[in-house]
Design goal:
This protein is an alpha+beta fold. It has helices spanning 21-31, 44-49, 86-91, 93-98, 100-106, 112-117, 120-126, 132-139, 238-244, 251-263, 276-302, and strands spanning 14-16, 35-38, 58-61, 71-74, 77-81, 143-148, 151-156, 161-163, 166-167, 175-181, 188-195, 206-214, 220-228, 235-236. It starts with 13 loop residues before the first strand and ends with a helix.
């Protein structure tokens, strides 16, 4: 069912809650760039009121589409609908066990009220360099499903980022419908950590996630490391990942990975959050700890 409402303070005139993806796409097509998709709206509505987005005539809320407010197992993947909130992810036993870094990253977003409304899909579509849920999903090798008038396709999460707050997803004509990742199996583990100011600023000083696979000899057979904000988009630390492959899962190797990661990122100073030097120290301190935590979880899977 479609609902329409007035919201003059935030400039749009109509608010729709389509029941199907096809209906959402039809509304977007009808408004021809004058309507945009909204999920939980925890970032979008604030930024719209500040004039950070162009005014639109209508908002299309996709969180009520049947089936897209659920977490499911489909083949080799855990699939998360675009209407799934951070709180749902944090409570889901499958994600806690098989996608630990995503549960941990969604668990530090905002406060309980924000997590009860905000969605992982919205976090991803917003494309901020340090979106915690995005960093967690990126470490897991996540993928996203995008629906448009031309059809539906899956794409790697890392290919969806265009710049700070800019996504290749056209939120005026496309819908990010689902997200997915391969759950960790025997000998695999993941972890996430966020550093933030105690005053509770919503954006992190640094956010990092890792996924590690170990063989029976405690050698690293696969690794993924995600970081933000360390550049214009959520960052996959590929050089640091390569340093780990085929090496023993030891503290010295994790420290080496942290140093290599720092050589390939763009840390900046922020007047209100942290200096570049402080961020460097946080990477040196916490990235090895995250890798060790992920490795310990992988070892439990081998036991």
């Amino acid at each position: 069912m479609t609902v329409m409402a007035q919201a003059s303070v935030s400039r749009w005139q109509h608010y729709y809650t389509p029941a199907t993806v096809a209906e959402a796409l039809e509304i977007l097509e009808r408004y021809d760039g004058e309507a945009r998709v909204v999920g939980g709206g925890t970032d979008l509505l604030v930024e719209t009121r500040r004039g950070m987005h162009k005014p639109v005539t209508a908002m299309v809320d996709v969180t009520h589409i049947e089936g897209l407010d659920e977490i499911s197992l489909e083949g080799d993947y855990i699939v998360i609908g675009c209407g799934v909130t951070h709180s749902q992810i944090v409570r889901d036993e499958r994600i806690i066990e098989k996608g630990s870094c995503l549960a941990e990253s969604c668990g530090v977003i905002g406060g309980p009220q924000v997590r009860n409304v905000g969605t992982l899909a919205g976090n991803v579509a917003h494309a901020l360099p340090a979106g915690d849920g995005t960093i967690g999903l990126l470490a897991l090798g996540g993928e996203i499903e995008v629906a448009s008038a031309d059809g539906v396709r899956w794409m790697p999460l890392q290919e969806s980022f265009k710049g700070p707050g800019k996504s290749f997803i056209d939120r005026y004509r496309q819908v990010l419908t689902r997200l997915r990742f391969r759950p960790t199996g025997p000998g695999e583990g993941s972890a996430h950590h966020r550093v933030m100011r105690p005053q509770g600023l919503c954006l992190p000083i640094i956010s990092m996630g890792a996924r590690i696979a170990l063989d029976a000899d405690d050698m690293i057979s696969d690794a993924r490391i995600s970081m933000g904000p360390v550049g214009p988009v959520p960052h996959l630390a590929e050089p640091a990942m390569e340093v780990l492959l085929g090496e023993p899962a030891t503290a010295s190797r994790y420290a080496k990975a942290a140093e290599v990661a720092l050589q390939h990122v763009e840390l900046r100073a922020s007047k209100y959050r942290a200096t570049r030097e402080y961020r460097e120290q946080m990477v040196r301190t916490f990235l090895p700890a995250i890798l060790e935590r992920a490795a310990n979880r992988a070892r439990r899977g081998l036991a």
